[in-house]
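Hi, here's the filled form for the chain we discussed.

Project: internal
Contact: R.S.
Residues: 496
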Amino acid sequence: MRVLKSLFAAAVVVGVSACPAVDVSLPTPLDRFYFPTAIAHLDNASGPDGGDGLLLVASTNFDKRFSGGSLIAINLDTLSPPLPPFGATPSSPVVQLPMIRSAPLGADGGSPDAVLIAPFAGQMAALPLGADRFRLFVPTRSERQRVHAVDLSVGADGALLLTCFNSTGRDCGANATSLTTFEQTETAVPRAPGAFGVALRPRACSTATDCGADPAEYVCRQGQCVSTPRGGGAEEPAVDVLVTHITQADSPLGSTTNPRGYLVKLPSESMQVTPESFIDLGIGATHAVAVGSRWNYVSGRFLNPLGNLIRMVDVSSGVTISSGLESVFRVSESRGIALSSDERRVYLLGRSPDALLVASIDDPKSETPKLQIVRGNPLPETPNEVVVLARPGRGDLLAITCTNAGVIALYDDDVGDVVVQIPGAGIQPFGLTVDRRGDGARLYTTNFQDGRVAVIDIPDLAQPQSARLVAHLGRQQLCLIRPSDPSCTTDGGVVP
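And the returned structure, exactly as it came back:
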């Protein structure tokens, strides 16, 4: 079992999307999570005071058992039975909530609060559009390397509606933006194979001409671009959607020569891709991006003999600066990346060895900010995602998913070390999102291999030892390691 799990985890970690050929005619289930990765929590302005908000979860369909992946929206305040109250003493055993539907399935198996996406989702970002309206962005590293845009609206009764951007159907992959549109040209670049990470950058402006090719479609309001669709519809913020990719692009296609990595910049209001959307970063693929006041900090994937751990990118000018941290702290490659609230620190998850790198940032708004390693701390096996929990007047608390170790690690920057490891979240915790609750926080993490979302409360961020697992959302599935497991059935029969 240990060998099988390690091999499977390695495929997840390096982003390999090649899978065994199996029947893909089965419809994608929309009543469960299936190898979930990307996750986002949203506050619900229409929900009850102190409510739990909204949760979005993307499933990867990693073993290609079904026809595609899915994106499912859950109004946590309508769950029955509900989540445990925040900060309450956890029950033993941990509360299990296998039913995740907030709307009934239709006769065709569809549901308003779920849509289809391509397989192999990476990360997710959410853009508030207005009252009870959001746009979600999910890159996938399947065929065509698509970046999905999906709109979410919340009804007066709390009902959720997901709709595909630029499409009237329920399959949001059909018209999703492809990052390999230009691969059939003579050079086969620019393209971004292995689409994975995503972050949103507000588009700054002095006048509407700074916002897009057609100034008539924009206004500049308080220094930020706002889209005003000519065909009617509500105004919405216009931001840059920044996308990374975990496989280098070669040129010509299939030659394994002239490798390079990109940071892709897409307009949130159109998702149109052009050759100018690709910012060439040179050799080395990209993994994740953290958005700063001026610079964007991009973590790098494997590059022999050393990984380019962090590159700083100015998307306005296309200028790229290498941090050079790999010459100081030797790790093969990097994964999740995050900034402190004051942008004086950058936190980076490294691999081989598994470590957290903490670097200071000197003058982050300058022409040439400098990064310097403050410390490197060992982490439990295969760290993937990190979120920063700011504590006013104190150092940051970080939550980190350590996938093969099966724990959530909490790092306290005041102490300079990991102070808590939370066990029991599930098999291979991966994606991570946070719901701030005053001086505390509720964490949600996807469990890639058992198909659930773990719910973890930290009632007081000043006392990370107070963290505890309180619930699991979703029905457990163990399809890869036990194909005949009852959780891997459809229509009452075992999937072959």
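Let me know if anything looks off before we file it.
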